[in-house]
Write a structure and sequence with these properties.
Elements lengths: L17 E3 L2 E5 L2 H12 L4 H15 L9 E8 L2 E7 L9 H6 L18 H12 L4 H4 L1 H9 L1 E2 L2 H17 L6 H7 L11 E2 L2 H13 L2 H4 L2 H12 L6 H5 L4 E3 L2 E5 L2 E5 L6 H11 L10 H21 L10 H4 L2 H8 L20 E7 L4 E7 L9 E2 L4 E2 L30 E5 L2 E9 L4 H13 L5 H6 L3 E5 L2 E5 L4 H9 L3 E5 L7 E7 L6 E5 L6 E4 L1
Parallel strand pairs: 17-18
Antiparallel strand pairs: 1-20, 2-10, 2-21, 3-4, 3-11, 4-7, 5-6, 8-9, 9-14, 10-11, 12-13, 14-15, 15-19, 16-17, 19-20
Helix pairs in contact: 1-2, 2-4, 2-6, 6-9, 13-14, 13-16, 13-17, 14-19
């Protein structure tokens, strides 16, 4: 049984761990969490609640995700952990040569070129078909309601919305971006906290997805609209790319960390970076969470794991090294020996051959879901299919245009993916879902949350509230301003290039649900760095 102390970091939130018996949903927006809880009360299970919450988040937090994004899930059901990879591939018509003919030396951030096949609607349908209890029309009803009737913006949401609008208004001036402004800035400016925003097109799209179990999105009217818009603006994605896409059920991968199994989705996701770092860190003993030596070793392990991840992670079939090699005990020991007293500049090793939303949901039968979806970089590509509310993701931005790189762009290939759901078990018992959204912060957040829980015995809320750090590149590290000043000074002495962040916006936003196997009671925490909320029953 997982044990933890009641100690609690007073910043950035004043929340305490929430306990629930019948079910709980934790995510970054109160309206979405409440929608998931309401589905539980209507007789739905944790999967139904997760889908309802995820669909709601495309409406009530479009700054971080959308219908045109990807999704991954870990589901504890039937005494087993199941993995779902609903990340879409690149279009069949794209290639390195085609991009270079357009004058690109690296993949662009905005526009139709980095658009890959959206996987999120397929994830909702696949999860509902395999594990759900309620019809998808019932499960998506709350999201349709908020899109149709509108809702008032929360404060952090409004801040991110304005930042995106300010940037897009300067940079995205060509015709393919007009529908983004029509949809997300209909009055010629970003909506502010408390303003009502609605999207009828978004509502109709969700209704079609619900009524057809996502077939309209991949084979019907919505696919036709995506295809027509892409053709009009010289994009690569076509209806044929959508028609042949199917999400993939996968076997999750794990490492044992001090008696607990920590689980992630296998590549193309970056979850193996977190696992590789934990494999290195278990070679050391830790007694003080806020000690500078603790942070130093965590940072060094993440650097080394990222060096490998950025070198090797891509579509699993295209990786030049196997996942088993990256996560082997012998390789972890070899890499951990590089962690000395001073900061290093990381380089890939040679393993043996062989802006996102996160939510967690649990029900009264012990089913638990770790779910994450994203458009990437906030609003994604900046491209919205007119009249639909479908903001297309820009995941293709992570492809390399170096033909010799493992993650080189190729037709029909899934790229290195940042979004990762996490899950913890002990023996044959589930402990529960956890996640920290936020681009390349995600595996770093996973490592810090896991260690806060296991090594330092922090309760779920305290594990999330604890001060964070983020490795950026080389020896450059950003510290959240809540870290003690003496810690920063001592890290500087070890050769780290330290930057103190003025706010907590770049350190990820997470949720945790742990289950007591003896009582069935859930203990949940949510993020104080956003408009996080827990809806308990």
């Amino acid at each position: 049984m997982l044990t933890y102390h009641p100690n609690h970091y007073p910043y950035p939130s004043q929340r305490t761990t929430t306990y629930a018996k019948h079910g709980v949903v934790a995510t970054s927006q109160p309206l979405a969490a409440q929608a998931g809880r309401d589905i539980l009360k209507q007789g739905g299970n944790a999967v139904d609640a997760a889908i309802a919450t995820a669909a709601c988040l495309t409406v009530v937090e479009p700054t971080s995700n959308g219908i045109g994004g990807d999704a991954f899930a870990l589901v504890w059901a039937e005494d087993k952990l199941h993995g779902l990879n609903a990340s879409g591939p690149s279009p069949d018509s794209i290639s390195i040569e085609a991009m270079k003919e357009r004058g690109y030396e690296k993949m662009p951030t905005f526009g139709l070129e980095p658009v890959t096949v959206p996987g999120a609607p397929s994830a909702w349908a696949a999860l509902s078909e395999r594990f759900g209890k309620l019809p998808l029309t019932d499960v998506l009803a709350p999201a349709i309601h908020y899109a149709e009737e509108g809702y008032p913006l929360s404060p952090v949401l409004a801040r991110f919305w304005k930042a995106a609008y300010d940037r897009f208004n300067k940079e995205l001036t060509s015709a393919e971006f007009k529908a983004w402004f029509d949809t997300f800035a209909p009055e010629g400016k970003a909506p502010e906290a408390g303003d009502i925003w609605k999207s009828p097109g978004h509502a109709e799209t969700l209704r079609q997805i619900a009524e057809t179990k996502a077939r309209a999105f991949y084979k019907g009217e919505l696919a036709d609209k995506i295809d027509a818009f892409s053709k009009e603006h010289n994009g690569f994605i076509r209806k044929e790319d959508l028609e042949k896409f199917e999400p993939e059920w996968v076997d999750p991968v794990s490492v044992n960390y001090r008696g607990y199994e920590i689980w992630e989705i296998p590549p193309n996701g970056q979850g193996t970076i977190a696992l590789e770092a934990l494999n290195m860190l278990k070679q050391f003993d830790f007694s003080n969470r806020d000690d500078e030596l603790t942070l130093h070793r965590q940072i060094e392990a993440i650097k080394l794991a990222f060096a490998d991840g950025l070198e090797y992670i891509t579509e699993a079939s295209a990786m030049s090294v196997p996942v088993e090699g990256l996560l082997s005990e012998s390789y972890a020991k070899e890499r951990s020996q590089l962690i000395g007293e001073e900061a290093l500049t990381p380089a890939p090793g040679e393993p043996p051959q062989g802006g996102t939303v996160y939510l967690a949901a649990a029900d009264n039968e012990g089913m638990m879901v770790s779910f994450i979806q994203s458009n990437y970089m906030g609003f994604g590509s900046g491209v919205v299919v007119p009249g639909t509310g479908i903001g297309l993701q820009n995941r293709g931005n992570n492809f390399s245009l170096d033909k010799d790189h493992d993650n080189a762009l190729a037709p029909g290939k899934r790229t290195f993916h940042t979004i990762i759901p996490g899950f913890m078990t002990k023996g044959s018992e589930p402990v529960g879902p956890f996640g920290v959204m936020g681009g390349f912060m995600q595996p770093q957040g996973h490592v810090q949350v896991v260690m806060n829980t296991i090594d330092f015995k922090l309760n779920p809320q305290a594990a999330l509230d604890a001060p964070r750090w983020q490795w950026l590149k080389d020896k450059k590290v950003q510290l959240e301003h809540t870290n003690p000043s003496h810690t920063a000074a001592r890290l500087l002495e070890r050769g780290h290039q330290i930057e103190i962040a003025p706010h907590s916006g770049s350190f990820g936003r997470g949720q945790i649900i742990w289950r007591n196997p003896e009582t069935g009671v859930y203990a949940a925490g949510t993020e104080g760095r956003t408009d996080g909320s827990i809806a308990a029953w």
